[in-house]
Amino acid sequence: MRPLSNAILMDLPSEVRGPTYSRSAIEPGIVHIGLGNFHRAHQSWYLHRLMQLGEAMDWGIIGAGVRAGDEAQRQRLAQQDYLTTLIELDPKGRSAEIVGSMIGFVPVEEDNAALIAQMADPAIRIVALTVTEGGYYIDPVTKEFDAAHPDMVHDATHPERPRTAFGAMIAALKHRRANGTGPFTGQSCDNLQGNGAILRQTLVSLARLSDSDLAEWIDANCTFPNSMVDCIVPATGPKELELVKTFGIADAAPVTHENFRQWVIEDDFCAGRPNWEKVGATLTDDVHAFEAMKIRLLNGSHQLIANAGEVLSVEFISDCMDHPLIGAFVRKVAKTEIALQVHPVPGMTPAAYVELVDSRFSNPEIIDTVRRVAFDGSSRQTGFVLPTLRDALANGSAMEGLALSQAIWARMCEGTREDGALIEANDPIWDALTLAAKAARSDPQVWLDQRDLYGDLADDAAFQSRFTHWLALIWADGLEAALRSYIQG
C-alpha cells in the first residue's frame, strides 16, 4: 500500500484515474477558505477536470482555514502533496480518481497573517469560501449583518489581526488597493440563497466598521457572484479510510461522493475566471430559481429526514428513505407542499426534481449520517425550511407536513431519542434549543417564541395550531404515530 503523493501518480493502479497534466506547471489563482470534503469533491473537481483538458493551469487552488482545527487538515494534505482521492459511490459500481488542482495550503495562524499575504498576492483573482450556512454573521430571521457578534467586534477593532475569514479578506483587499493590485472576486460556495449577495453584505458591512472608504472601494470594485452548488458528500471516517485502500492507495483524507454534481454560477467575475462551463458548470445571469429549487427541495427535505431519523434512531439517510414512515413522510411533503412553492428551471420541473432527489437520497452506497445532515439546524431550518413555510402560509397552500417537521425538530432538540439514547449537542446554540424544547413539551408556544429563529411566524395562528397539535401527538403517542397520521390524512 503506497501513500498518496506526486511520486506515485505515474504508477497508479489501473482502475484509478490520475492527473494527465503536469502539476509542477500549475500556478496559483484561487484561495479557497474552508477546505473540507465538499470543496474537494465539487469545486476542486471541476477545476481538475478543466486542467485535464490542458486549460486553467494558472488557476491552481491554495487552501486555507481560520480555525485551529484546520491545521490538522493542512498537515494531512501537505504530507500527500495536496492530492485527494475521490471515490464515486454509484450503485452500479465504485470508481476512484486522484484530483490534483490544489497545490498548497497556507499556515493556519491566529492573526491570519499568512492568509492575508496570500490573498494580497496579485496572482490570486478569486477567493472562494465554504464556511457553512451559519458562518456569515447574519441574523437568521432578518438576514441583516450581526455587527454585535464578538468575532465581528474583534475584527472591526483589530483589522490588521482579524480572526475571521471576512476580516482577513478585508485586510488583503486593503493591501491590494494600496499596492494597485486591484480587486478579487469573492465566491461563496455555501448553501445559501443569494450566497454572493450575503458575502458582499458581510464583507462590506464589516469593512465599514473600521474603514468606510475601503468598504466603498470593495463594494464598487469587487464582485460576488451568486451560485448554487450540489453534490452529496459524506464525512470521512474509518470506513472511508479503509475503502480507499481497496483501490491500492493510502490516503489520509479521502473523499466519497455520489454520482451527481451540479454547479450553477452567476457570470460576474471582476478579475477573470476558469472556463468551468467546458466541464459541466452552468454559467447564467439568473441563479435564483436554481438556488430555490435545490435549497428547498433537496436541503429542506434533508432536514425533514435527518430530524426524524435522529428521533427514531435510524443512522443513515438511505435507511431513512427505506423506512416505511420516514420515507413516505418526506416524499409527501416534498411533492404536495414544498414543490408548490418552487418554480421550474430550464430542463427541470419541481416534480421531476423531487424524483431526482428521491433517487439520490435512496442511494445505498452513500453512507451519509443523519447526524451530519442534522448539524446546525438553527441555520439550516431557517434557511432551508422556514422560507417555504412562510410562502405556503402566505399563499394559503398546504403546510401540514411543514408544521409537523418543526414539531419533529423540537422533539429532536429535547435531546433524547425515543429509545432513550442521548442525542449529543449538534448545534452552535444547542443548549438554548434544548431548554426551549424541554419547556415546549408542556407549553409548545415556548418553542415558537424563539424569535431569533421564527420571527413573526410565532404569531401565525394557523401555524401555531398545527405545530401544537403535532408536538402534542408526538409526545403522547410517539413520532411513528404522528408520521402515520400525516401520511394517511
Automatic annotation (TrEMBL):
Q: Where does the Mannitol dehydrogenase C-terminal domain start and stop, copy by copy?
A: 286-472
Q: Which InterPro entries match?
A: 6-PGluconate_DH-like_C_sf, 6PGD_dom2, Mannitol_DH, Mannitol_DH/Oxidoreductase, Mannitol_DH_C, Mannitol_DH_N, NAD(P)-bd_dom_sf
Q: Which UniProt keywords apply?
A: Oxidoreductase
Pfam families from the entry? Mannitol_dh (PF01232), Mannitol_dh_C (PF08125)
Q: Where is the Mannitol dehydrogenase N-terminal domain?
A: 29-278
SUPFAM superfamilies linked: 6-phosphogluconate dehydrogenase C-terminal domain-like, NAD(P)-binding Rossmann-fold domains
Report a single Gene Ontology molecular function.
Answer: oxidoreductase activity, acting on the CH-OH group of donors, NAD or NADP as acceptor
This protein is called Mannitol dehydrogenase
The organism that produces this protein has a lineage beginning with: Bacteria, Pseudomonadati, Pseudomonadota, Alphaproteobacteria, Rhodobacterales
